[in-house]
């Protein structure tokens, strides 16, 4: 499997897209809005970076750019993703606020790799097919979830957890977490 480009549709917005990339992580089904996904890579060797939180497994060189790779299993407190034949890295582009010379906030973007067990497929989910995020009981922080959708593969009454990628991969949240860990050491 080589990389698969999935550039966002022109004029699409995260709120307006009805396509989601479904993937499995530790036996649970998750989905990301395809608007944020730029490509899917087969697992490759990661370069570890000293003094980073455990969930940042390392970085990859993606066409001359350094891209951090996050292990969602560790981020969600579910152990470490075991590297297997179908392990993938989903490259996600997220907005990152930056300060300008005028101290006004502007937006740039950051590519982040997300390590997952296997990418399943792209599915269409209408807004009315996605239930609101539960306040508890999903096993991960409620603010990481944008909603829950029923699985369409005949697997029973299981749900797909639709992630809010801007919260799960929040750069500010990760920096604050890293600082808290450093202070506690």
UniProtKB/TrEMBL annotation:
<dbReference type="InterPro" id="IPR039315">
    <property type="entry name" value="CheW"/>
</dbReference>
<feature type="domain" description="CheW-like">
    <location>
        <begin position="17"/>
        <end position="174"/>
    </location>
</feature>
<dbReference type="Pfam" id="PF01584">
    <property type="entry name" value="CheW"/>
</dbReference>
<dbReference type="InterPro" id="IPR002545">
    <property type="entry name" value="CheW-lke_dom"/>
</dbReference>
<dbReference type="InterPro" id="IPR036061">
    <property type="entry name" value="CheW-like_dom_sf"/>
</dbReference>
<protein>
    <submittedName>
        <fullName>Chemotaxis protein CheW</fullName>
    </submittedName>
</protein>
């Amino acid at each position: 499997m080589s990389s698969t480009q999935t550039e966002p549709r022109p004029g699409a917005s995260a709120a307006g897209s009805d396509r989601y990339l479904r993937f499995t992580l530790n036996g649970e089904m998750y989905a990301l809005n395809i608007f944020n996904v730029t490509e899917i890579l087969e697992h490759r060797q990661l370069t570890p970076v000293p003094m980073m939180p455990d969930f940042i497994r390392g970085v990859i060189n993606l066409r001359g750019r350094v891209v951090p790779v996050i292990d969602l299993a560790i981020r969600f407190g579910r152990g470490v993703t075991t590297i297997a034949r179908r392990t993938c890295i989903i490259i996600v582009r997220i907005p990152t606020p930056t300060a300008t010379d005028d101290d006004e906030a502007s937006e740039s973007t950051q590519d982040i790799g997300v390590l997952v067990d296997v990418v399943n497929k792209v599915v269409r989910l209408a807004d009315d097919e996605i239930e609101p995020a539960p306040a508890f009981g999903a096993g991960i922080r409620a603010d990481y979830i944008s909603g829950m959708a029923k699985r369409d593969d005949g697997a029973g009454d299981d749900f797909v957890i639709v992630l809010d990628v801007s919260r799960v991969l929040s750069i500010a949240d990760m920096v604050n977490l890293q600082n808290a860990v450093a202070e506690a050491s």
